[in-house]
Amino acid sequence: MKIYTKTGDKGKTCLVDGSRVDKDDVRLEAYGTADELSSFIGLLAANVKDESDKAFLMHIQNDLFDIGAALATPSKVCPEVSSSLIEAEIDKIQATLPALHSFILPGGCNEASLAHVCRTVCRRLERNIVRLEKTAEIDANIAIYVNRLSDYFFVLARKCNIIDKTPEIIWQKTCK
């Protein structure tokens, strides 16, 4: 089987049901962003030191594949994703973190910086899902899951900086 089909050469592509849409369709933007996030998660997983974090990131990648498939399907599809697993992981990590009294800037060690990239791509995915929901019926659990996922990347970034003994970068208000 060839990897190229030439069927998309004129700016159209097929959805899961076989219907053709423009490549700049809001649906493609949504599932394409899910794919982009999964790619960044793969990069993050290749760099994190904690094996349980690596395993959890791989679990998230599998969930994002299910979410991408649901977003690529014009009829409402309910993927088996659970925000409760994300919430439990956030709670577990947050219990090990010092209290946060200021805004922090994205950055720190390599792993934390990658987690912040994942967080911001995740937020873009959430915006794309909200945009898609205006014209298509999307399972509500998808948006909830993605919203929790960005919070997970925030606390994971903080954890990575602590493991690496890298101080968090505190936002210094510059406007008066």
What is the topological layout?
Blueprint: E1 12-14, E2 20-22, H1 26-47, H2 51-71, H3 83-94, E3 104-105, H4 110-133, H5 140-163, E4 169-170
Antiparallel strand pairs: 1-2, 3-4
Would you tell me the structural class of the helices and strands? mainly alpha
Distance between the ends: 61 Å
Strand portion, in percent?
A: 5-15%
Biggest beta sheet summary? 2 strands, antiparallel
Question: What is the C-alpha radius of gyration, as a whole number of Å?
Answer: 18 Å
Strand order of the largest sheet: 1-2
Question: How would you name the oligomeric state of the polypeptide chains in this document?
Answer: single chain
Q: How many H/I helical runs? A: 5
Number of strands: 4
Q: What's the overall average pLDDT, rounded?
A: 90
The SSE order reads EEHHHEHHE
Q: Shape from CA axes?
A: elongated
Helix % is 55-70%
Low-confidence segments: none
List keywords for this structure.
two-stranded antiparallel ribbon; two-stranded antiparallel sheet; mainly alpha; 5 helices; single chain; 176 residues
Give a structural overview:
This protein has helices spanning 26-47, 51-71, 83-94, 110-133, 140-163; strands at 12-14, 20-22, 104-105, 169-170. The protein has 176 residues and is mainly alpha-helical. The strands form two sheets. A two-stranded antiparallel ribbon has the order 1-2. The chain has a two-stranded antiparallel ribbon with strand order 3-4. A hairpin with a 5-residue loop joins strand 1 and strand 2 (20-22). Helix 1 (26-47) packs antiparallel against helix 2, helix 1 runs antiparallel to helix 4 (110-133) and helix 3 (83-94) runs parallel beside helix 5. The longest helix has 24 residues, at 110-133. It is elongated. The protein starts with 11 loop residues before the first strand and ends in a 6-residue tail after the last strand.
